[in-house]
Design brief:
Shape: elongated
Strand content: 5-15%
Strand order of the largest sheet: 7-6-5-8-9
Radius of gyration: 44 Å
Largest sheet: 5 strands, mixed
Number of strands: 9
Distance between the termini: 51 Å
């Protein structure tokens, strides 16, 4: 039977730390309370054998009495003998079973022990310790302990199930860290493998992470071969990430419907032609997205092969060519050829896919043409190229130059070193010119030392030739003139490379650039340049400006007229200055002359600002709009709203800025057709800079040490490295489930 303890009244004169209690059997309906202050929680009555023992006290303890089944014989005796023998709480330190609460045996052959410790209660305190020791060896106590142990036992099947479940959770968490480590390496463009498997970046990263995560450490140390770290498994995981990235990109395309195509090609470190394909789309908030879709290897760059690559890409991504509204490439004949170029082949399939020659590439061609045409500029750029090759061609010479640079750190700007000559981007060659002009004093001293230093005998003649060129006023003046021209062109080129730039704004940048050069072609600007060059020449102790020796030109050039010779050096350099600016202005006008695309966009702009009707759009756009009268109505709604707010709409950019205002969400809903037209216009790509930037990533990913990378893996890693923001949002648990479900062994 169960044993309970009932609280009794405490004698006010009692000074003992533990009050006296009476111990007696109670009914199941009686409320039971522990008597000691250390146990002030109510003890529920009516415990049965089915009750959980672990809810009462830790299973590490084993006792046969219920709650402190030790007390004085009765409350009356306590009152009569307040100073008699009592229960000592310290006994529980030696005999912990005294205060254990659980169902006790209902009968026993040891009647005395059963009455003392179960039925009536223990009250013989004189020899309590000896009796407790005797009771621990009794059959009653051993039976109670055995019953407790049996109750605590867990079935062997449940034990194995729990162990298996725990191992599966640990293995999954270790595999999850393998996935996240591979993702990290791909996002950073780092190699996964190394010289050996043990020294690979992935293995070393996992070892570092396992130092503070024991399950991963056990996973790496397990003797089994299935650790999911082999090159084949790594490639599979990378492909899973790549496919998830592609699905995420493609999932946004149906809602944006129309797109612009951007394409460029270049060779990698393995001398393989890589075609980079990008899409330009616009969402409902007029935000422009330029997404890189991957590299595609091609044996040739013929227009037919490029066209097949484009069509195959569209088919794999389930995109219709009929939704293409623009295409942007460079000026190569395979791309922009009027007869059989890629643009012509696509326009024969979809005539609304208008072609845009990359604006940034066109600006570079302006500079390239001017450098080729103008002899003074061509000779100066050749001098820059040869000198930088000479300076950077020897580590010993370059280190010797840095010594002079450190001595003149106050005179030279930021201690800039010589920058290499860009082989393709002529606008970027401004950096090379600036690296020379900002180190001019150190450069002169360095060349003078090379001319006399015995340690540099082999380069003495070259150094003397460069020194003679740099000490002439003619060279320094042309450096300063080119620095001004290239700085203006570089600023415009930077603006043209923005992904959010639309075609109308790009045209505005080009028009502003023309105006800047026209304004700069003036006597005032030349006088400022001349004065500055003269002052700098005196500071660097350069030669005075002088006229070259006069040579009579051939009669076939001048005829019977007298040859012209400038009378002063300033007049000669004025001619050079105006010729350079005239060449740039003419080049801008020729390269950015109106085309069929600009004519189309001009007509769209006239419609949007209310100057024309929908006749042209109805003929060109065809089935882009179901009802063109509805389009006209929506255009008028937008213009009326702008008029009511006193907003003047003069061009496409004004119309776009008006619709993009946050408080015009309602207008965009009412004028949905005109919003659709604006989105189509915004798909017009301006430059191929997004495709060109992918080649910067290609140089990092497929380096000399990773030149054997397969095309499939290169394409996958390039997607992850380019779309970092998308890959970081992936739920690894979803990828883990897909990876595990592929093979039964991984279950």
């Amino acid at each position: 039977m169960d044993k309970f303890v009932i609280r009794s009244k405490k004698n006010s004169s009692d000074f003992q730390s533990v009050p006296a209690v009476t111990v007696s059997p109670c009914s199941n309906n009686e409320e039971i309370v522990d008597v000691h202050e250390d146990f002030n929680e109510p003890v529920p009555s009516g415990l049965t054998e089915q009750d959980s023992l672990s809810d009462v006290i830790p299973l590490s303890q084993s006792h046969c009495a219920c709650a402190r089944a030790v007390a004085e014989a009765s409350a009356s005796k306590s009152k009569q003998k307040p100073y008699g023998r009592r229960f000592i709480p310290k006994w529980t330190e030696t005999f912990s079973w005294i205060e254990y609460r659980l169902p006790l045996p209902r009968e026993s052959r040891e009647k005395d022990a059963f009455q003392a410790f179960v039925e009536k209660g223990f009250d013989r305190w004189k020899d309590a310790i000896e009796r407790f020791k005797i009771h621990e060896r009794s059959a009653l106590h051993l039976a109670a302990v055995s019953g407790l142990l049996d109750a605590e036992k867990t079935p062997i099947s449940a034990t194995f199930s729990n162990i298996l479940k725990r191992d599966m959770e640990d293995n999954r968490s270790a595999l999850k860290r393998i996935f996240s480590s591979i993702r990290y390496l791909c996002l950073q463009g780092l190699a996964i493998r190394g010289k050996t498997e043990e020294t690979s970046n992935l293995r070393q990263l996992l070892i570092e992470r396992s130092l503070d995560y024991l399950p991963l450490q056990k996973w790496l140390e397990r003797p089994e071969k299935y650790k999911w770290l082999s090159p084949e498994i790594c490639n599979e995981i990378i492909m899973d990430f790549s496919l998830a990235t592609q699905r995420d990109i493609v999932a946004t395309l149906p809602s944006r419907v129309y797109f612009g195509l951007m394409l460029d090609e270049s060779s990698d470190i393995s001398a393989k032609e890589q075609v980079s394909i990008c899409f330009r789309t616009v969402d409902d908030d007029f935000e422009i997205y330029e997404d890189f879709l991957g590299f595609y290897e091609t044996a040739t760059t013929k227009s037919a092969d490029l066209f097949n690559i484009v069509m195959d890409t569209l088919k794999r991504f389930n995109i219709s060519i009929n939704n293409c509204r623009s295409q942007c490439y460079d000026g190569a004949s395979a791309m922009a050829g009027d007869i059989s170029g890629l643009k012509t082949r696509i326009m024969q399939t979809e005539h609304r896919a208008l072609f845009v020659h990359c604006r940034s590439h066109s600006l570079n061609l302006v500079v390239q043409a001017e450098v080729s045409r103008n002899t003074d500029i061509a000779n100066t750029m050749s001098l820059v190229q040869n000198f930088i090759a000479f300076a950077r061609g020897s580590p010993k010479r370059l280190a010797w130059f840095h010594n002079f640079q450190d001595q003149n750190d106050n005179a030279d700007a930021n201690g800039t070193s010589f920058r290499p000559f860009c082989p393709t981007r002529f606008i970027m060659r401004k950096i090379s010119i600036v690296s020379i002009t900002s180190n001019y004093s150190s450069l002169i001293e360095w060349l003078q030392d090379l001319e006399t230093n015995e340690d540099f005998v082999k380069c003495k003649a070259e150094a003397a030739g460069f020194l003679a060129s740099f000490q002439r006023f003619d060279t320094f003046f042309k450096f300063e003139m080119l620095r001004q021209i290239f700085t203006t062109l570089e600023d415009a080129n930077t603006q043209l490379q923005g992904a959010q730039l639309n075609f109308q704004r790009a045209e505005a940048v080009i028009e502003a650039l023309k105006k800047v050069f026209i304004d700069a072609r003036s006597e005032e600007r030349f006088d400022v340049l001349w004065t500055s060059a003269e002052a700098s020449a005196k500071f660097y102790d350069l030669d005075e400006p002088e006229l070259p020796r006069q040579r009579r030109p051939p009669a076939r050039r001048t005829g019977s007229a007298a040859a012209y010779f400038p009378s002063t050096p300033k007049e000669m350099y004025r001619k050079i200055f105006f010729a350079a600016y005239d060449g740039v202005i003419v080049g801008l006008s020729d390269r950015f002359e109106p085309s069929s695309t600009t004519t189309h966009l001009k007509k769209v702009q006239e419609f949007l600002i209310g100057k024309t009707g929908v006749e042209y759009l109805e003929e060109f756009c065809q089935n882009d709009f179901e009802d063109y009268q509805r389009l006209l109505l929506h255009r008028n709604i937008a213009l009326d709203a702008a008029k009511s707010e006193k907003k003047e709409i003069k061009d496409f950019q004004d119309f776009l800025d008006f619709l993009k205002m946050d408080h015009h969400m309602g207008i965009r809903s009412l004028a949905s057709e005109v919003v659709k037209l604006v989105k189509i216009v915004l798909t017009m790509a301006v430059t191929t800079c997004t495709a060109e930037r992918s080649y910067s990533g290609l140089r990092r990913l497929k380096s000399y040490l990773r030149s054997t990378m397969t095309q499939k893996r290169l394409n996958a890693v390039a997607l992850l490295n380019t779309h970092r923001d998308i890959v970081k949002t992936f739920e690894l648990d979803v990828l883990l489930d897909n990876f595990i479900a592929k093979v039964h062994l991984r279950m």
